[in-house]
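hi got a favour to ask and not much time before my train. below you get a single protein, a line of residues and a line of whole numbers that encode the local backbone shape. could you go over both lines and see whether the tokens make sense for that sequence. a few lines back from you is plenty, here it is:
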Amino acid sequence: MAKVATVSAKRGETQLQVALAEAREQRRIQLRAARLLVQVVHPLWSPDEDSRILKMKSQGIHFTAISDDLGRSRIAVEQRWHRLRAVPQVQQLLIDFGTSEKRWPDALMDVLGAGGAG
């Protein structure tokens, strides 16, 4: 977002104009992430859980400990991890999408539904 602010500042735009440009850019990034993550949407999982699985696994934490943390079976967590890894740059996409404790369909609809309001 710093790039947007720098370019906007050079144009002599107001703080409000800069903030609006940054919000539009963030929204564009979030929608792109949503489009790419749609292939891993599952009604029993949330973006927050997916992020936690990927983060903990990248720290070398065993599936058993992750499953205990999430209150899920080890095999369910392991299968979800494998599915998530099929999406290139999935961790960054989840960051761009934003975390939500809502299950995927609801979280996705919140993001996509907000697009119609602007």
About this structure: The two ends are 19 Å apart (CA to CA). Helices lie at 2-10, 15-37, 47-58, 63-70, 74-85, 90-97, 104-115. The first helix runs from residue 2 to 10. The mean pLDDT is 89.
